[in-house]
Design brief:
There is one protein chain. Helix 7 packs across helix 9 and helix 8 packs across helix 9. This protein is of the alpha+beta class. Strands 2-1-5-4-3 form a five-stranded antiparallel sheet, with helices on both faces. The chain is globular and about 55 Å long. The chain is built from ten helices and five strands; from the N terminus they run H-H-E-E-H-H-E-H-E-E-H-H-H-H-H. The protein folds into two domains: 166 residues, Beta-Lactamase (2-Layer Sandwich); 75 residues, Arc Repressor Mutant, subunit A. Helix content is 54%, strand content 14%. The protein starts with a helix and ends with a helix.
């Protein structure tokens, strides 16, 4: 697949939120995966604000140890926080020239092997949900064309989130982001259980859960809870009985 085809596929994926089984965690994880595949970055992460102006990191669900440590700092200082607060791109690039106010972030980034950092806001007009953090391990900052493409991905993701049927207003957005943050804890627990049971890595365990959820159109949290409760991946859902209204099915999805 050419780069142009990958870009087109990504925009289609970011627009595909008008579905009954929309999973916000998987959606955000997919955004970070596509950034790593298409852009010249080593890692990517989405940081979201809930509640108020405080950032949290619900995705990716399976960060490397270095990235996990860095994200704990990134929610308090650094480019991701600046991009969210200013609703504009932060493109200082090489961390050797990072502002003094990023001291802890820069230290943890360098310890993790990262040399560049950029952040783009997840925004739509006056609405800003968070930011997209892009990290590199080369001496050169991201090309301007890649930064523009990353902002387009971030904009498309924001539109998809705000216009999905599960994210219709600010109150619902807050509820969904809270659910995403809580769900990450459940997913991390399930990932550890599955990795231990199958004697595989945590990354492989998460990929197994995610593939199962996508193949059977289940929420990641549904898969995770089944693993915690039974130690097994859940069975595929039964097809809806004839006469079951779509409204009832939608209600079941929204309350997941």
């Amino acid at each position: 697949m050419s780069r142009e085809e990958e870009i087109a596929r990504t925009f289609v994926e970011l627009a595909d939120t008008f579905v009954d089984d929309f999973d916000v965690i998987d959606f955000l994880h997919q955004l970070t995966v596509r950034c790593k595949e298409i852009l010249t970055v080593a890692d990517a992460a989405v940081l979201l604000a809930w509640p108020g102006s405080r950032l949290h990191s619900p995705a990716p669900c399976d960060p490397s140890p270095a990235l996990a440590t860095l994200l704990e700092t990134a929610v308090r200082q650094g480019p991701a926080l600046e991009a969210y607060r200013s609703a504009s791109a932060v493109t200082h690039g090489n961390l050797a020239h990072a502002p003094d106010g990023w001291r802890d972030f820069t230290t943890h980034a360098r310890q993790g092997g990262y040399t560049t950092a950029h952040a783009l806001p997840l925004r739509l007009r006056r609405e800003t949900l968070g930011s997209l953090l892009l990290l590199g391990t080369t001496a050169e900052p991201l090309p301007l064309a890649d930064l523009a493409l990353a902002q387009a991905f971030a904009d498309a993701a924001t539109i998809g989130l705000l216009h999905s049927r599960t994210l219709q207003n600010t109150q619902t957005v807050n509820q969904q982001l809270h659910t995403a943050l809580q769900s990450r804890i459940v997913i991390e627990q399930a990932k550890g259980i599955l990795a231990a049971r199958l004697q595989i890595s945590l990354a492989h365990a998460f990929d197994t859960m995610r593939r199962h959820a996508r193949h059977h159109r289940l929420l990641l949290t549904t898969v995770a809870r089944s693993i915690i409760d039974t130690g097994q991946l859940p069975d595929p859902p039964s097809p809806p009985q004839e006469g079951t209204s779509s409204a009832l099915r939608d209600e079941g999805t929204l309350t997941e």
